[in-house]
Amino acid sequence: MTAAPRLLVADLPRRGLMGIVNVTPDSFSDGGNFFHPDTAIAHGLALAAAGAAVIDVGGESTRPGAEPVEVDEELRRVLPVVRGIAAQVRVPVSIDTTKAAVARAALDAGAQMVNDVSGGAADPDMLESVAAAGAAYVAMHMRGTPRTMQQEARYTDVVRDVGDELRARVTNATDAGIDARALLADPGIGFAKTAEQNVALLRALPDIAARVGVPLLVGVSRKSFLARIVGGDDRAGRDDATLATTVWCFGQGAALVRVHDVAASRRAVALLETLERATPEGMAA
Ligand code: PMM
User: Is residue 2 part of a domain?
Assistant: First the structure.
């Protein structure tokens, strides 16, 4: 059974920012900060006020080596937060989960998008559940699970292999009845990839978009390979590199970029767009 899509990618602003709300004790950059529902809701509302196009709520850490969370615990973490944010802002809420039961409950609670880092591979009921609800869907590329993925970072040609594997996930999603206009694909930066492979994928975003045939979402925010590239103080280095990489992703045609700091990213994107619009005389009116 499928339902008419409730949210299309075309309904989102061009170059939208997906603001991150991790309701986890252990995510790698903000674990524990927003573990209480009231704090998480307040953070989601602040991201919406800062201009997020989508608010992404997640209750299970996906950092390399992370242990899985039971479905009841994940529901307990995310449902009040999804409900609280969806009731107070018009910005669409996305649920970051690999479990169909969590996706269904979050969609009932007001979410409109499912962000699935397994691209439908972790739960055989996921794609049908999303189709039945008429929700938008992000199919991300990963191999294995967060616990095992770094052992699977072996590719013949990383851009071609990730593009083709992602295309297969997108095809599974449309075969299950998800409307192609409600689909985004994500190369899964840092998921079963080395730092070198992440850079190769970021360099080739237009090629990957052409291979998968749907708009791209990219998530680089505060990921450890960025600190390795820019050096310096770890936290500040990651934040600076996140802004530069966010601008790069939009310049390479990404439709959405997933970030922790929406306000800073908005300023960086405003600068990019001013430069793109500039005339030989300088700033366009
Ligand atoms: N990265 C994380 C979690 N969810 N979802 C998508 N679609 N793409 C990503 O790159 C992604 C994700 C890990 O980062 P976090 O722990 O800071 O949320």
Answer: no
203 is annotated as an active-site residue:
no
- Write the CATH number for 245: 3.20.20.20
Total structural domains within the chain: 1
User: Of the listed 15, 193, 211, 223, which one is catalytic?
Assistant: 223
d(CA 57, CA 258) in angstroms, rounded, equals 11
Whether residue 211 is contained in a domain is answered as yes
206 occurs within a structural domain = yes
Mutate to test the pocket of ligand 1, among 17, 96, 197 (most ligand atoms within 8 A of CB): 96
Give 233 or 108, the one with higher predicted confidence. 108
Model confidence, pTM: 0.96
Give me ligand 1 centre to Cα 97, in Å: 10
Residues 6+ apart with CB under 8 A from 19: 44, 47, 48, 50, 52, 54, 55, 56, 259, 260, 262
pLDDT digits (tens, 9 = 90+) for 181-238: 999 999 999 999 999 999 999 999 999 999 999 999 999 999 999 998 998 778 889 9
